[in-house]
Amino acid sequence: MTRTEYRWLLPSAMADPELPGDRARARRTVRDWVVDIVAFLSAAFIGMLALAAVDADETTADVVVFVDSVVGAAACCALWLRRRWPVGLAVSLTVLSVVEPVAAGAMLVALFSLAVHRPLKPTLIVGAGALLAVPVQPLLRPDPQTGFLVSVLFGVMLILLALSWGMGVRSRRQLVVTLHERAHRAEAEAELRAEQAQRLAREAIAREMHDVLAHRLTLLSVHAGALEFRPDAPAAQIGRAAGVIRDSAHEALQDLREIIGVLRGPGDTDEGERPQPTLTSLDALIDESRLAGMKVALDNRVTDPQGAPAATGRTVYRIAQECLTNARKHAPGTEVTVTVTGGPGEGLTIAVANPAPVEPFERVPGSGQGLIGLTERATLAGGGLEHGPTKDGGFAVRARLPWPAG
């Protein structure tokens, strides 16, 4: 980030950033031409009033009137440089107006432009110098029709009016710039939040898809492999394996429809929502794994599984489902032990363990994302999960989840 960009982020109380139009543009816009012409005409009008007062004095020589006219015209023409050198022009016209009353109009416009296009500090310095010079001009070029005190008060009032008006215009421009910056920043933050929400939604859908479909597809892979390597198996065994493949494919399609339904807007689905698994669905999951040929020992010590919170029960189900899927892929033929304990106030604990496989087997490729997803699930549910190999070469997963009392 550059220094200028950093200053834009600071509040106006800490920094006075450069505003659009503070520096002369390489090419003037229509608005610039209109403003410059109005400024020139305003300075010329005030200068003509001062020149008329000088000419009305019979003691003033014609040469003085001519010189005042030329100097006043030059001062008004110098206003075309007010954007490029506002400080230098304001100082020069302030000094000139001390001896040339006709340049007073150009000096007021220069002070106004200085207050608009430059920060507070140089504006106050030049403005203080202009106020100090106000009493000098009536002493050098007194107006016989106006007293000294009236001339001083009128000059001070005009200078303060020009400076305050210019600072007001600059403050308004700063406010507009700040509001634009805040609007752009709010839009950027909104886009960032939307992108983050989309990313989190994608991660949640991917995690759910992995947890749900991996179990079904592993059953399909195992039984399809059995049919491939045992074409001479008894008809009953082939029929049972084909039935498991059919049921697993059907369940996988149902789960896939359910996950895709999350991506649809409300009212897009013409089916009722499918019930989510709970702690009471754990027995059906174990029976399904046993039907697929796995050896699973379930030790469910929860006396009231229906009273478990829905989110906690669903997390326990997904953990057991993923662990059984991993055991089927990486330790086929071994007996998997699933233990569930706990109750209201003490939380729920699920432990899944399997010994090391004894016979060689064809490994099913895995990405390792399942255990990461389980850890995230347990953390989001307010608990924790630990996993790792055991001393005998097996693998164990243990998770603890909250179950509030009452």
What would you say this structure looks like, in words?
With 406 residues, the protein is of the alpha+beta class. It has 2 domains: 187 residues, no CATH class; 126 residues, Heat Shock Protein 90. 62% of the residues lie in helices and 9% in strands. The chain has 12 helices and 5 strands. The chain has a 5-stranded mixed beta sheet with strand order 1-2-3-5-4, with helices on one face. It is rod-shaped, with a radius of gyration of 43 Å. It starts with a helix and ends in a 5-residue tail after the last strand. 28% of the residues are buried.
Helix content: 55-70%
How many helices in DSSP terms?
12
Biggest sheet features: 5 strands, mixed
**N-to-C terminal Cα separation, in Å?**
55 Å
- Give the H and E element order: HHHHHHHHHHEHEEHEE
Summarize the structure.
Helix content is 62%, strand content 9%. The chain is α+β, with helices and mostly antiparallel strands.
What would the keywords be for this entry?
9% strand, 2 domains, nucleotide-binding, 406 residues, rod-shaped, alpha+beta
SSE topology:
Elements: H1 3-8, H2 30-56, H3 62-77, H4 86-99, H5 104-117, H6 120-133, H7 136-140, H8 148-229, H9 235-263, H10 282-291, E1 295-300, H11 310-330, E2 335-343, E3 347-354, H12 369-380, E4 384-389, E5 395-401
Catalytic activity: ATP + protein L-histidine = ADP + protein N-phospho-L-histidine
Keywords: ATP-binding, Coiled coil, Kinase, Membrane, Nucleotide-binding, Phosphoprotein, Transferase, Transmembrane, Transmembrane helix, Two-component regulatory system
EC number: 2.7.13.3
